[in-house]
Amino acid sequence: MIELNAATKRYGSLTAVDNVSFSIKTGEYFALLGPNGAGKTTIVKMLLDFTQPTSGSLSIKGLPSTNAASRTSIGYLAENNHIPPYLSGWQYLQRCAELLDISRSDAMDQCRRIVEQIGMQGREDTKVNTYSKGMIQRFGLGAALIGNPKLLILDEPTAGLDPIGIREIRQLLESLKHQGMTIFLNSHLLSEVEKICDNAAIINRGKLLVKDTISALVKDGDTLEDVFVRFVKG
Amino acid sequence: MKMPKALPPIIRIAKYTLTDEVWQKSFVVMFVICAIFIFLIRGCYQGNYMVNGQVLDAGTIIRAVSKVTFHVIAAGVMLVTALLSMRVFRRDRDDGMQSCILSKPIARWQYVAGKILGLWALSIIFMFILHSIVFITTSINLKVIMPEYLIASLLCSFNLLFVVVAVLLLSLLMPDIVAFLCVIGIGIIGFVADGIFAISHSQMAQTMIQQPGSLPDLTGWNIVYYLWPKLSGTQQFASSLIGSEGFQGFVSIYPLINVLIYVLILGALLFWRFRNEDII
């Protein structure tokens, strides 16, 4: 589904991503872990062609990430997601559906279902400027789910959510697992990652330190947090 | 007939650009002020005007005033278009719409084309409505129908396309306000060059040229006159339709061709520059 081949990104003298290679199979729940500034978001941006790699290549479903067609059936939630404040949550979802060329009646059905899934019934018609950060994040996740994507790329999906919201998002992601969706998750919440992901990679200062299954990484008596700290601190 | 696949996203992005602008309070305020200003100009049609001791007839007054109004509206809307265009990319970035759109199977050129189309359509509608107010005023109140007025308005829309493309390109390279000022500067220099060219070709100037040293060297301004974006020339060409002035062949349409060539060059640069832009 996703393939990174010696992907490198430099900003002047700073190497944000350094020769990173890994692949993610269809149906895999994958977490990319790393401290702030490790290069996680840069990898996501290169995958979505938001920024071009200095060297190396990235592909989605066999298509180079520079090809717009590679983003077919992809849902994306940005870190610190924003929504135009003059729209309502419902209008935003409708707009996302329209951009995916979904018919009006299908869009209505999908948006209704998604509003329910993200737990925002009754608030969908109010303007976004009245929403909390957590509510914006939920609508962002809702927008990513429009069009029943095969691949979800989530950059800190639980940022700004309260513990109940985090739990609901986790339950939602778990339910998507049964639909055969592939998930690429960037997160700091290691306990959540441990609960829902099959595989994880840890990067630090742009370099890939390890990529393995969660069960192989977390040995008896350890937590993912212990493993993460051990790798990052060397 | 089936629409090419690339078109629907462009049209949708254009639609969002247009509606997003219209929802801005600043846009509504600008539009209302402009419309009130045009309504107030009505009084100018009813005055008594004398030239060389002769009272002008109503038809001449109406055509002359309408022509002045035409130029004021065309130049004013160019200013408004520059104001609207300068913050479009920034607002889309801040509101998360840029990353939302480009994370879908939509190419960057489609996004940029949608933005250009939306802004251009909005500015054309803005200018056309203001010109239509003048047209309706002269048609209903003064019983002078000038269909060429609206055709001239549409011709001026190429100037608006130039402004949209130039401001969008420059806003990727420099702060928004500087991009706005640069394009306004381009317009002002063009107007000045046209003015100097017109004066230097007047009868009085020709007489002065006969006396060596009486007129400064205007070669530089002549080069600017021909090569600079001819926004005022296009406006002049469009307004020549209102006055039913004679068509002078290539000389008449050169300003329009000049502006279109600039639009193509700046458009190509804009698409190329945005292709290398990092999406935040």
Give an overview in words.
Chain A is an alpha/beta fold and 234 residues long. Chain A folds into two domains: 1-73 and 151-156 and 187-234, 3-Layer(aba) Sandwich (Rossmann fold), CATH 3.40.50; 74-149, no CATH class. Chain A has eight helices and ten strands. Chain A has helices spanning 40-47, 89-99, 104-117, 133-145, 163-177, 190-196, 214-217, 224-233, and strands at residues 2-11, 14-24, 29-33, 55-60, 63-64, 74-77, 151-155, 182-186, 199-204, 207-213. In chain A, strands 6-7-8-3-9-10 form a six-stranded mixed beta sheet, with helices on both faces. Chain A has a four-stranded antiparallel beta sheet with strand order 2-1-4-5, covered by helices on one side. In chain A, helix 2 (89-99) packs across helix 3 (104-117). Chain B has 280 residues and is mostly helical. Helices cover 76% and strands 1% of the residues of chain B. In chain B, strands 1-2 form a two-stranded antiparallel sheet. In chain B, helix 3 packs antiparallel against helix 9, helix 6 packs antiparallel against helix 8 (157-173) and helix 9 crosses helix 11. Chain B is globular. The model of chain B has no long low-confidence stretch (mean pLDDT 86). Chains A and B meet through helix 2 of A and helix 1 and helix 5 of B.
Topology:
The complex is a heterodimer of chains A (234) and B (280).
Chain A: E1 2-11, E2 14-24, E3 29-33, H1 40-47, E4 55-60, E5 63-64, E6 74-77, H2 89-99, H3 104-117, H4 133-145, E7 151-155, H5 163-177, E8 182-186, H6 190-196, E9 199-204, E10 207-213, H7 214-217, H8 224-233
Parallel strand pairs in A: 3-8, 3-9, 6-7, 7-8
Antiparallel strand pairs in A: 1-2, 1-4, 4-5, 9-10
Helix pairs in contact in A: 2-3, 2-4, 3-4
Chain B: H1 7-22, H2 25-40, E1 50-51, E2 54-55, H3 58-86, H4 88-94, H5 97-102, H6 108-140, H7 147-155, H8 157-173, H9 176-200, H10 203-210, H11 219-227, H12 231-242, H13 250-275
Antiparallel strand pairs in B: 1-2
Helix pairs in contact in B: 1-6, 2-3, 2-6, 3-6, 3-8, 3-9, 3-12, 6-7, 6-8, 6-13, 7-12, 8-9, 8-13, 9-11, 12-13
